[in-house]
Design a protein that fits this description.
1078 residues; mainly beta
Length: 1078
């Protein structure tokens, strides 16, 4: 019918599989019936077939129709591992006809349910546009397959396992035949030819074989393949069903050694064709019940060594020849059946009984067949037979019989026990084992005395002796440490002898001394006996006696003698109260520790007596200067310890200014300030020890005193000590301290204690360089002292008075050194200069040249001056004075003046003679001027002599050089003077050489030009300036004695004349004959 439209669908779309087991080849069968014809080339797609491990590719497909096979599909078809298969029709597919085809995939290795999303879809070939077949779910049969529910559902995959697999054994004893029973049930049918493999039954000694197996049904073969080393048994299934459990048994021989139950597993394969399905290996479940009282004894191949879990042996006495009851305690780790044998051997060292049987008793009673067992005194072997009542595991049994110890000391022998357990064809042996000793306890005071048949000789196993103090005359605590290998009963006495060299007299009351102690208390009776001559001390055990292996310490005090001696050999012995026969502990030399006591090697050894002394006892000082702070340094080194509250006394430190005190500061933290003292009059310092001075430790003590104000030689110093030692102190005999001659402050021997010198100046020179009033003067000092001067020391100079230096500081400098601080203190009012010593200090007797500038007084009224100097040397709390003395002032000549080098000597230089003359009085013509003059000091170079007041004169320039000649012509002045018309008409003559002589008449000639108009000059002055250091010193001038200069008026000539010649004359450097010119 036109435009009749239907939806093409599959009315039948079934799918199923051939095998639900993992890792096998699985055939998938698909059945389809369409509601319309599908033309050739139509495409059918199946999806959701997931879980296969078949990779992407193509798969062969085989088709059928109406149960008649024909190839209606293209083969192979496209396959995708995601679960998609696409087939293409190669023939016409007719409606209402069921078509089927098959293809193979390999199941995966993971169990999974069948997918709920297995669909079929496709396209019907219809020309240009194909008709879609909408995706629909396919039907699954949900049928059981090889015992697996829904096993036909495609790609439902299970892991084949044994759901039940139990095992147990018949005996856990070594060496015996053991029957193994197995019960199993699988989660699917075990098809014929399938295998069951039990692995891990290790430990059996059964060889490889076809092992006989007794099954509970005919579904299993009656034999299996047994491999011993891996412990594997493989069985063949004749076809089992999933719903049933199967039981089978087989025998293995247990090994001759114990072992834990091995980890047994079961696995297998299911026969299904080319690829068998592996049955996953899994642990075997085992029965873990008690068997012959063995815990978990039913677990397969758990093998134990039958043994005595308790096999103790004990006795009643370790003392030689004593009656000794032997007790044997038994407890087994499994049941011992009737007629089993128990043998104890190694009971050697006994001397009784000598017959072949020995009576015994057991608990519980009637354990053994007869009331007496066999005995061999030579081998020490005792055997008994278990009666009809078995020995039960974990039950304690005790057998007791009497022997007698021998007389010879011996260790406990090796006592062993063995058995043979009745077990059928093959008995299980219990091999000989050394018997154990019950919990160790002291027996008769013997350590491990409970060890059977141990026989001991009583001994002091600890016999130590020591002392507390080896120093002569000291209280000495003797310490005895003892320990025995057995108890010492009440009334046992022991003696320590050989403590020779003590000063303590014979007495029987040392035990009453408060220093007599014993630890633990109460072990000694109230009795003792001390004999000085032999050094013997005898004591008596009291109370409940002593216990073995317990340390006892007994201490008593004696006084050391005064004679030095090595340590003594000391003996200890005892007699043990033991009834009819006392047991002696024979004499033994006591042990010494060789330890150090109070710093004395071997000082802990008894009666070593030692002389204490100071092996180093040095004393020195740091400052020999009178009245200075002086640090005395004492170094001591004792040859032993010096304990707290001991005192060390230093005597002979006389001559200081430090007053008596109990609080003299000192360094040395090992001594206490509060107990130490200083006595000025006797020069005694007593130091009290606060913390122990150790042997050969260098102890340095520093303390400060103020030196004598006068000079003194060094004082010998003595040292002694009282060493605290309890009730009787030891001592260090007084002895002179050691000294060493060394330099201090540059002074030899100045390190000797309290050696004192008064420091002084060895050089105090002072001079000056300039004597001009108010002039900046340079003062030079030459200073030296009889000692080194340290940083912070000061030198003070007095008497530099009437200067015009108004500052508070003056800078000083030195030649070649830096021993003085550059800035010094200055007091103008008193004329005091304070020099400070710099970090480098000064050196004894070395002369230092020091300079400083100062403004001179304005006149010489203060001359001569009393200039003095003093100093102090920085020394700490008290500085050392260098006493005041007058300085040596220079009397040298300065600028021709005798003594003018004396500091602050001043002289005003002056012109002492000045006369002159002029050549011509006529106006406008050259005028030669002649000057004679003298002065009262030697002039330095560059000094200026000036003729002032020549205002009526002129030169061809206003200011400049002027030829002049000074005679005598010996080079004292330059031949050119300077002319300055602006300065009132001044001619300046300049000295050319230093020390131009004083009081020498000099003459000078120079020519100027008179002014052209009439005038007069009446106030000529001859003066000067001394120029040094860039400064000018004014010279007192004199009027220049010369006839008044009158420049006359010239009458006017009647006739005019030319001035050319006059102009030429005026420009001539040497002047001209004006008369002729005119």
């Amino acid at each position: 019918d036109p435009l009749k439209v239907i939806e093409p669908i599959f009315v039948v779309k079934a799918v199923e599989q051939s095998m639900p087991l993992w890792q096998v080849i699985n055939t998938i069968t698909v059945s389809l019936e369409a509601n319309c014809d599908f033309a050739t080339g139509s495409i059918i797609t199946f999806s959701g077939l997931s879980g296969s491990i078949t990779p992407d590719g193509v798969l062969p497909v085989v088709g059928s129709a109406n149960n008649s096979l024909f190839q209606w599909l293209e083969s192979p078809a496209a396959w995708y591992n995601a679960g998609n298969l696409t087939v293409v029709s190669t023939a016409y597919i007719f409606a209402e006809t069921v078509y089927a085809f098959q293809f193979n995939v390999t199941n995966g290795a993971i169990a999974q349910p069948s997918s709920d999303w297995i669909n079929v879809s496709g396209t019907v070939e219809a020309g240009p546009i194909d008709a879609d077949v909408v995706s629909k779910s396919m039907e699954k049969p949900h049928l059981e397959l090889i015992g697996v529910a829904n096993g036909t559902d495609p790609l439902l995959i299970i892991e084949p396992v044994f759901e039940v697999f139990y095992m147990q054994q018949s005996s856990p004893l070594w060496y015996v035949i053991n029957t193994i029973t197995v019960s199993m049930k699988a989660n699917c049918n075990l098809l014929p030819g399938s295998t069951i493999t039990i692995s891990g039954l290790t430990g059996s000694v059964s060889d490889d074989t076809d092992l006989r197996v007794v099954p509970s049904s005919t579904d299993l073969d009656g034999s299996g393949v047994w491999l011993r080393d891996p412990g594997n048994l493989t069985l063949i299934s004749l076809g089992t069903t999933q719903q049933l459990s199967y039981i089978y048994r087989f025998n293995l021989t247990n090994p001759p050694n114990s072992q834990p139950a091995p980890n047994v597993s079961v696995s297998g394969t299911i026969e299904v064709g080319p690829l068998d399905a592996p049955v996953t290996i899994r642990p075997v479940e085992v029965r873990s019940d008690f068997l012959i009282s063995v815990e978990r004894g039913t677990e397969p191949m758990l093998v134990i060594e039958p043994n005595f879990t308790a096999y103790a042996v004990g006795h009643s006495s370790p003392i030689a020849l004593a009656s000794n009851f032997i007790s044997v305690t038994l407890q087994a780790n499994c049941d011992f059946a009737a007629r089993s044998f128990v043998t104890v051997s190694g009971l050697t060292g006994a001397v009784y009984p000598t017959i072949t049987t020995v009576d015994f008793v057991s608990e519980p009673a009637n354990l053994f067949v007869e009331p007496s067992g066999s005995w061999n005194v030579t081998t020490g072997e005792f055997t008994s037979v278990v009666d009809t009542v078995p020995i039960l595991a974990n039950t304690t049994y005790v057998i007791t019989f009497e022997l007698r110890n021998g007389a010879v000391e011996q260790d406990s022998p090796a006592i062993s026990i063995a058995a043979s357990i009745e077990a059928g064809l093959i008995d299980a042996p219990v091999f000989f084992k050394l018997m154990t000793i019950p919990a160790v306890y002291d027996l008769k005071g013997v350590i491990n005395g409970s060890n059977p048949l141990q026989i001991v000789e009583p001994l002091f196993i600890v016999k130590d002796i020591g002392q507390s103090n080896p120093l002569v005359l000291a209280s000495n605590l003797i310490s005895i440490t003892m320990q025995t290998n057995c108890d010492l009963a009440w009334m046992t006495n022991f003696t320590v002898s050989g403590l020779k060299g003590a000063g303590t007299q014979d007495t029987m009351s040392l035990h009453e001394d408060p220093y007599f102690t014993h630890d633990p208390p109460g072990i000694l009776a109230e009795w003792s006996n001390w004999v000085r001559s032999d050094g013997n001390m005898t004591l008596l055990i009291g109370g409940a006696g002593t216990s073995s292996f317990t340390t006892y310490v007994i201490e008593f005090e004696i006084v050391n003698g005064h004679v030095v001696q090595d340590y003594q050999t000391v003996i200890i012995s005892a007699i043990i109260e033991a009834g009819n026969f006392d047991a002696p502990i024979y004499e033994k030399v006591m042990n010494v520790s060789n330890g150090t006591a109070v710093g004395v090697p071997f000082g802990k050894n008894p009666m070593l007596i030692f002389e204490p002394e100071l092996v180093v006892q040095n004393i020195g000082q740091n400052n020999p200067l009178a009245s200075a702070s002086n640090t005395l340094t004492i170094t001591i080194q004792p040859n032993c310890e010096i304990s707290p509250m001991s005192n060390i006394t230093f005597s002979g430190l006389t001559g200081t200014q430090t007053p008596t005190t109990y609080t003299l500061p000192f360094t040395g933290q090992r001594f206490t300030q509060s107990w130490s003292s200083w006595d000025k009059d006797t020069g005694t310092l007593v130091l009290v020890v606060e913390t122990t001075l150790t042997e050969f430790e260098s102890i340095v003590i520093n303390f400060e005193v103020q030196n004598n104000r006068d000079e003194q030689p060094y004082t010998p110093v003595t040292v002694r000590s009282d060493i605290e030692a309890g009730r009787n102190d030891s001592r260090i005999i007084p002895s002179r301290m050691n000294i060493s001659a060394e330099y201090r402050f540059g002074i030899w021997n100045a390190s000797l204690p309290l050696y004192t010198e008064i420091p002084y100046f060895t050089a105090t020179w002072i001079k000056q360089d300039y004597m001009w009033p108010g002039f900046l003067n340079n003062i030079t000092l030459h200073l030296a002292t009889s000692c080194n001067m340290t940083e912070g020391s000061q030198v003070t100079i007095y008497g530099l008075t009437e200067t015009t230096q108004a500052t508070t500081n003056i800078n000083v400098s030195e030649t070649g050194t830096t021993s003085y601080v550059q800035q010094s203190g200055w007091d103008q009012a008193t004329g005091t200069l304070i020099l400070n010593i710099a970090e480098n200090g000064t050196v004894i007797f070395q002369e230092y040249e020091v300079f400083f500038d100062i403004l001179n007084p304005l006149d010489n009224t203060g001359y001569p001056r009393n200039i003095t100097i003093e100093a102090f040397v920085e020394s700490g709390t008290f500085d050392a004075p260098i006493y005041l003395k007058e300085m040596n002032q220079s009397d040298a000549t300065l600028r021709g003046i005798k003594g003018a080098r004396a500091p602050l000597y001043t002289k005003q230089p002056r012109i002492t003679f000045a006369e002159g003359a002029m050549q011509s009085p006529f106006p406008g013509i050259p005028n030669s001027i002649f000057v004679e003059f003298r002065y009262d000091v030697n002039l330095p170079s560059d000094a200026e002599i000036m003729v002032k007041g020549l205002s009526a004169m002129q030169w061809n320039v206003g200011t400049g050089n002027l030829p002049c000649l000074v005679r005598p012509d010996d080079g004292w002045f330059f031949e050119v003077c300077s002319w300055n018309v602006d300065n009132g008409g001044t001619v300046v003559m300049t000295s050319d050489r230093d020390e131009s002589p004083l009081n020498t008449t000099l003459s000078a000639n120079f020519t100027l030009v008179n002014l052209p108009q009439a005038t007069s000059t009446t106030n000529l002055i001859l003066g000067g300036d001394i120029i040094e250091r860039g400064l000018r010193a004014y010279m007192t001038p004199l009027p220049l004695l010369v006839a008044p200069t009158v420049i006359l008026e010239i009458p006017q000539a009647q006739d005019t004349f030319s001035t050319t010649s006059l102009d030429m004359c005026l420009t001539m450097a040497g002047g001209c004959d004006l008369g002729n010119t005119l």
